[in-house]
C-alpha cells in the first residue's frame, strides 16, 4: 500500500519525488502549497540532501504524518 502511495506521488516513475510532483498531488487533494512550503516538506525528510524524496525518505514522511 505504501509503495502504491509512493507511486501516486512519483509521477515519472524515477524513484524520486520532486517538489513539482509533491505539489501536483497536494493540489489534487485541495491544498495549495507554495514552492517554499513544498521545499520545506521535502527538506524535513531528505536524509541524503539531494532535494527529492526517495522511498525510504517517503516512509519516514508517512510515519511522521500518522
Briefly say what this structure is.
This protein is mostly helical and 66 residues long. Helix 2 crosses helix 3.
Topology summary:
Blueprint: H1 2-9, H2 19-28, H3 35-45, H4 55-65
Helix pairs in contact: 2-3
Please characterize this protein's 3D structure.
The chain has helices at residues 2-9, 19-28, 35-45, 55-65. The protein is mainly alpha-helical and 66 residues long. Helix 2 crosses helix 3. The longest helix has 11 residues, at 35-45.
Summary keywords:
globular; mainly alpha; 61% helix; Recoverin, domain 1; 66 residues
Question: What helical percentage do the residues reach?
Answer: 55-70%
Please give the CATH class: Mainly Alpha
Question: Which class best fits the helix and strand makeup?
Answer: mainly alpha
Q: Return Rg in Å.
A: 11 Å
By DSSP, the count of extended strands is 0
Question: Please, what is the CATH homologous superfamily?
Answer: EF-hand
CATH topology: Recoverin, domain 1
Termini, distance in Å? Answer: 15 Å
Order of helices and strands: HHHH
Overall form: globular
Strand content: under 5%
Identify low-pLDDT runs.
none
Provide the domain count.
Answer: 1
Q: Please, how many helices?
A: 4
What is the average per-residue confidence, as pLDDT, rounded to a whole number? 95
Query: What is the makeup of the main sheet?
Result: none
The assigned CATH architecture is Orthogonal Bundle
Domain EF-hand: 1-32, 33-66
Keywords: Calcium, Repeat
Protein name: Calmodulin
Pfam families: EF-hand_7 (PF13499)
Amino acid at each position: 500500500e505504501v509503495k502504491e502511495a509512493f507511486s501516486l506521488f512519483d509521477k515519472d516513475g524515477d524513484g524520486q519525488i520532486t517538489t513539482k510532483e509533491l505539489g501536483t498531488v497536494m493540489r489534487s487533494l485541495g491544498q495549495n502549497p507554495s514552492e517554499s512550503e513544498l521545499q520545506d516538506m521535502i527538506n524535513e525528510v531528505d536524509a541524503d540532501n539531494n532535494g527529492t524524496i526517495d522511498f525510504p525518505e517517503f516512509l519516514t514522511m508517512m510515519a511522521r504524518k500518522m
